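Repro:
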Amino acid sequence: MCESAAGGTAPGMRSTSTRQPGLNGSGRRHRAGTVRQQGCDFLRKRDLEQTATDVIVIGSGATGATIAYVLAHNGIRVICIDLDVRGAGVTDSAFGWIRPTHTSIGSELHRDAIADFRALEADLGGALSISWAGSLTWFRAPEHTESYVRRQQGLALPTEAVDADGFRRLEPSLRRRPEIAAYAPQEGAVAPGRMRRTLLAAARDHGVRVVEAPVSEIAVGIDGGAQVFSDAGVFNARYVVLANELGAPRLAAQVGTVLEVESAPAIRYTFRAAAPLSRRVLSGPDYEIRPWHRGTYLGAADYVTSEGPHRPVTRVHRALDVIRRDFGLRNPLQLMDFRVSFKPMPTAGRPYLGALLSAPQVLVACMDAGITLAPAAARRVLHHITGAAELAAI
């Protein structure tokens, strides 16, 4: 780890600039030892010994925890700060489907997602307990499923079309099967809360200081440093990473950049069935489910808040009725847990991953598919800080 002494930086503000989100296109990989040495040399060259730490990561969800761990694992001093380190935020209420694409927009960030997730899992010795059983996706109209398969294949994502017989071999418990489904064998599922806690624990083992406190303000100085003001005090660093999801736009605006992010409501529920159901993620027009713990299953659904306050409960019970019908179950499914969370949704349709043009010391990692993209985003943040590759400007 690079050695340095504490010091301070003077806060300052830059001019306002609004930019569209950008993605870093670098797909280069480096061995941990090589990156660690490059990181130390780079940090010395940037005179980081005059700051209290190298990087402050704001946010301890899946994205923030992953970034903090990856940076610290490569010899960079990190402080991770969040309002509620132990609480169930967006990450702990997520479905946990490791799915390397979102809508129709493809990018190297999405295409690298599975490989980066597997590398992170190996680095942690399997502690994430990921199920790599794949997924089956289908739409109400078969032609829409066929179009989805072609789109996935066009993005170089391993996906194949399976008919009803192929579906039966993969999921024999489902009685009412679609004519055609998209089978993605490389996809997986992870317990989001466990992922976050495991990464935070591993980050602490590598020297990360985890602080539980609300952040009120960030500022940048003419000397190239940055400051984070919180209820736990003022922290100085060379870089600040905004990985605090829906809180990122407020802090980015303080240094002159507008991030266009909406909050999208999502439902997650847990239920128990008297008989075994799916072996993998099943995503159909009426429900989205996957195996959970000890005979229970996890379900997910999106909804629009204008539908009314009772709409989420109605949606869940309707989904459970369809699941019971499709699997040919006699007994009702037992609803065990139900929660609604609000996830960040960049309105431009792409993740915000880059350095603010108005304040290059401030990096942003704000993504809808935060669970899936966290390892790939962390690698890019590492490469930017160590000088191996530059993130795009936002």
